[in-house]
Amino acid sequence: MFRRRESVPFAFIAEADQFRSDVTPPPRERASAGQIAGRWLLGLTIVAGLVGSLVLGMPALATDTSTPAQQSQASQGH
Fold first, then answer.
1. Which 3 state secondary structure label does DSSP give 51?
2. Burial letters for 38-64: b for 16+ Cβ neighbours within 10 Å, e otherwise?
3. C-alpha of 5 from chain center
């Protein structure tokens, strides 16, 4: 009726808490103003590229239904 839980296949995972260090890592350095500006510039460049490709690609994806479809002379039997 009740299943017995399987033991952890890797004993070192179960015993990992014993080996934790009490040494705290040093605090992270704050990014400089130049680094922050560079990240913003990179993000804006990527977004502008995506928007630009969308703007330039939309006319190619649009179907023009106002003009009748042109048929070649070969399809007319000439």
1. helix
2. eeeeeeeeeeeeeeeeeeeeeeeeeee
3. 39
Is 0.70 topped by the overall pTM? no
- Please tell me the distance from the alpha carbon of residue 21 to that of residue 39, in angstroms, as a whole number: 34
- CA-to-CA distance for 33 and 30, rounded, in angstroms? 9
* Residue the block writes with tokens 């042109």: 70
CA-CA distance, 36 to 42, in Å (whole number)? 10
Question: If pLDDT is split at 50, 70 and 90, which confidence band does 30 have?
Answer: very high
- The residue among 69 and 74 whose pLDDT is bigger is 74
What's the rounded Cα separation, in Å, for the pair 14 and 50? 47
Q: What is the pLDDT of residues 11-20, one digit of tens each?
A: 656 565 556 6
Distance between CA atoms of residues 55 and 61, nearest Å:
11
